[in-house]
Design goal:
The structure is a homodimer. By secondary structure, chain A is of the alpha/beta class. Chain A has one domain (about 5-275): Divalent-metal-dependent TIM barrel enzymes (TIM Barrel). In chain A, about 45% of the residues lie in helices and about 15% in strands. Chain A has helices spanning about 20-30, 40-45, 50-55, 75-95, 115-135, 160-170, 180, 190-200, 230-240, 260-275, and strands at about 10, 35, 60, 65-70, 100-105, 140, 175-180, 200-205, 245. In chain A, strand 5, helix 5 and strand 6 (about 140) form a beta-alpha-beta unit. In chain A, about 55% of the residues are buried. At the A-B interface, loops of A face helix 6 of B.
Amino acid sequence: MALESRQLSLNTATVRERWNLAQAIEGCQRHGIGGISPWRDKVAELGLQESARRIRAAGLTVTGLCRGGLFPAPDAAGRQAAIDDNLRAVEEAAELGAACLVLVVGGLPAGSKDIAAARAMVQDGIAAILPAARAAGVPIAIEPLHPMYAADRACVNTIDQALDLCDALGAGVGVAVDVYHTWWDPNLERAIARAGAERILAFHICDWLVPTTDLLLDRGMPGDGVIDIPRIRGMVERAGFKGLHEVEIFSAGNWWKRDPDEVLAICTERHRTVC
Amino acid sequence: MALESRQLSLNTATVRERWNLAQAIEGCQRHGIGGISPWRDKVAELGLQESARRIRAAGLTVTGLCRGGLFPAPDAAGRQAAIDDNLRAVEEAAELGAACLVLVVGGLPAGSKDIAAARAMVQDGIAAILPAARAAGVPIAIEPLHPMYAADRACVNTIDQALDLCDALGAGVGVAVDVYHTWWDPNLERAIARAGAERILAFHICDWLVPTTDLLLDRGMPGDGVIDIPRIRGMVERAGFKGLHEVEIFSAGNWWKRDPDEVLAICTERHRTVC
């Protein structure tokens, strides 16, 4: 059964080079896209209340706020600064009515080779913001990033690892499942089943290109790469996930250069035909 | 306790742009390096018997032959061709007295998005060569590659996944543990302990650079990146591994351009001081 564009959500990173948040909201309306997941810099630019007002007026579901996290730091002051910033992000997510605050948890602190210590800092950081997140009704979505980002962006690299964190932290924490970060995982199906409906807070789509020419900014449009997106969507749906499918494409050399209206037209077409 | 250069092995990929195998053998002797792990193209260039003769005469341990694998293919003829080539690699490894034949197992066949099918092809391919490998006394080392190579080089991406294959295949198969491919794995310590002395057939070292500018050819000299090599060496040693430490650096922009004698001098110094 073909997917409806109302089931698609636009992560604003996909059009960030050429559209501000107001333009992205209008773009979603023009293309019949049902949801949006804004980045905090774009929200700040438009203003938090104005962003919330426009998104509500457009009838868009906020599938997430990107992003909190980045907890590890070389010293206690740095770690506290990260926690303070995450507390502000929780407030913003609440104001926007976001389904979750997405965490890119952070990698190794500068000068460190101790990934176990970085992982402990992540757990401590989430624990520190969790009471406020629960009080605000904002679920925290740990996004496991591909292992190629373990050093510099996120030392949580599999869904199982994220779920172990969720188990340790208790209610109010779940995972964001991104096909780009997880498609290779030999344990993917079991991990998604383990997560279950309550803990799958977001589902992100794009594609893995062959070859991939840049570790960060060479992600593909669904259908242009090797990820079997329908298979992974089937896994999250069997686990009970009923949320939107959020398209998030970092692509400095291709999609970021194009007319965002063309990008959204292709996103909705690919969502319908290959996702 | 500082490591001795006799405990170091040179994977010839490290100097492949500027040295043939005869030069690499002589280079190991000059630098007091105890082992070598040649690539098949370099062996073919020098001749199999001549390669074996020179390596023996130099008193070098052959820590592995690189490489077999690349089993998945779109059709049966392609898969059989891969098996036939791997059977030749087993013979070459036996002639060289290699401690193991290292497998880079292969990624998705052209046009496929079915990673489960590719993984089944890998298992079938290894099963097909295993009787000959056992008869020749050549252990087969599955090398899990970093998940960023899942599409195009190796769909076996964690030590645990490789060990599941070993369990299914029986005697004569183990793993090559490469710090570059595995350092991020939250389950690394348990997986190495699970492998045990009998199944850790090789231990490869290099480093993960931040930033990494190329997915394949931007590996670092030990000490220049973020991998805690002594910690991982401790894991394999606690598991009972007593083999050499094989340095393997793919580095088109840096180390491959330098004088190989300078590279080996730095390798032995870093091996002594940071590994």
